[in-house]
Amino acid sequence: MTLRELAGLIEAEIIYGEQHLDDEFECVSASDLMSDILAFGMPRGVMLTGLANAQSIRTAEIIEAKAIVYVRGKKPGEEGIKLARERDIPILSTRLLMYKACGLIYRQEEKQAEKVSHESTGGTVSRHDLSRAYEITGRNFAKAGSVSVEIKQILQELGIDPAIVRRAAIAAYETEMNVVMYADRGEMVLRLNPRAIQITLEDSGPGIENIEMAMQEGYSTASDEIREMGFGAGMGLHNIKKNADVFELRSTVGEGTSYNIVIYLDSTEKT
Amino acid sequence: MTLTEVVERLGLRVVTPAGSGDSKVTGGYTGDLLSDVMANSKAGNLWITMQTHQNILAVAKLKDLAGIVLVNDRQPNEETMRKADEEQVTILSTGESAFSISGRLYRLLARP
């Protein structure tokens, strides 16, 4: 289905992205929780959400969504529209509720039974050893996600397999968000060698009391404020683990937490 | 259509069977923000969400929802399950995404 057909189907207003209306999308993810979209959203898909903040646009960029559709008549603010324009992510807004929008799109997809197949193209640009450090500030929700987006762009420009870039971007993003949500500050370091991508992070903050529990899906100590932003559903650490080949977490209560994430460039190398 | 029929037709797993299976499903409501569901869902709606926090029970109860469907194989914790039994709220679960289970419920209920 093209974005144009989609817009007609759910009577959506096009806020940005007229030039992309003939683009096809392949799947839909529907959620108000950004962690859920990061965990289950697919590239080249359309993201349906009722959460119209800047994080929704950064999330769309990380998962490589074709477009964002805001339901319930929600629209991002000027800042969000500016970000969408910068990142070139089409945004649409419909007055329909999430449920009905899903229903109509699902029915239409069933009608168009023909599946679109796609081939992934692997790049072979030579990679030099690389190391970059980034400062992340706790509670700065306006900038949250920007480090991960930068890391993703670097990896993309190096021609790394898009599936691997995506995994690294998701792991980086969840790590970055953890600093923003819970810690005072943190330093993230991206390292790349011909074999692997490594992302490490040291934060200063409250630390994690019970790592085993924190790793469980659904466990969260997030405040209501964080939850309303679509985070804090207890998916973050689980999401990192799911996307990393190696994930080590160490924490001292009252001091901080350190993350070590490794993703092998050759996915057959998984230990 | 009754909740029991919907459960059978969509192949949902029953996690807490406390609520009434005879209650009529009037439609669906898909969303993960409790304040949104509180504001916009209608009595008898089957609520599709990935939220498993025990606060979902109060929303389901206050809005007289038919039940809650947890998507992507999410499981409520024991505290939520215990409270669901106490408050007589039916929790169901599915391995499907919110989009696909919403689509299938919509299709099922749209049929005459």
Topology diagram in text:
The complex is a heterodimer of chains A (271) and B (112).
Chain A: H1 3-9, E1 13-16, E2 27-30, H2 34-40, E3 45-49, H3 54-62, E4 67-70, H4 78-87, E5 91-93, H5 98-111, E6 130-137, H6 146-157, H7 162-182, E7 185-192, E8 196-204, H8 211-215, H9 224-228, H10 236-243, E9 246-252, E10 256-264
Helix pairs in contact in A: 3-4, 6-7, 7-10
Chain B: H1 3-10, E1 13-16, E2 27-30, H2 34-40, E3 45-49, H3 55-62, E4 67-70, H4 78-87, E5 91-93, H5 98-110
Parallel strand pairs in B: 2-3, 3-4, 4-5
Antiparallel strand pairs in B: 1-5
Summarize the structure in words.
The complex is a heterodimer of chains A (271) and B (112). Chain A is α/β, with parallel strands linked by helices. Chain A has two domains: 3-111, HprK N-terminal domain-like (Udp-n-acetylmuramoylalanyl-d-glutamate--2,6- Diaminopimelate Ligase, Chain: A, domain 1), CATH 3.40.1390.20; 130-269, 2-Layer Sandwich (Heat Shock Protein 90). Chain A is built from ten helices and ten strands. In chain A, helix 3 packs parallel to helix 4. By secondary structure, chain B is α/β, with parallel strands linked by helices. Chain B has a single domain (3-110), classed as HprK N-terminal domain-like (Udp-n-acetylmuramoylalanyl-d-glutamate--2,6- Diaminopimelate Ligase, Chain: A, domain 1, 3-Layer(aba) Sandwich). Chain B has five helices and five strands. Chains A and B meet through strand 2, helix 2 and helix 5 of A and strand 2, helix 2 and helix 5 of B.
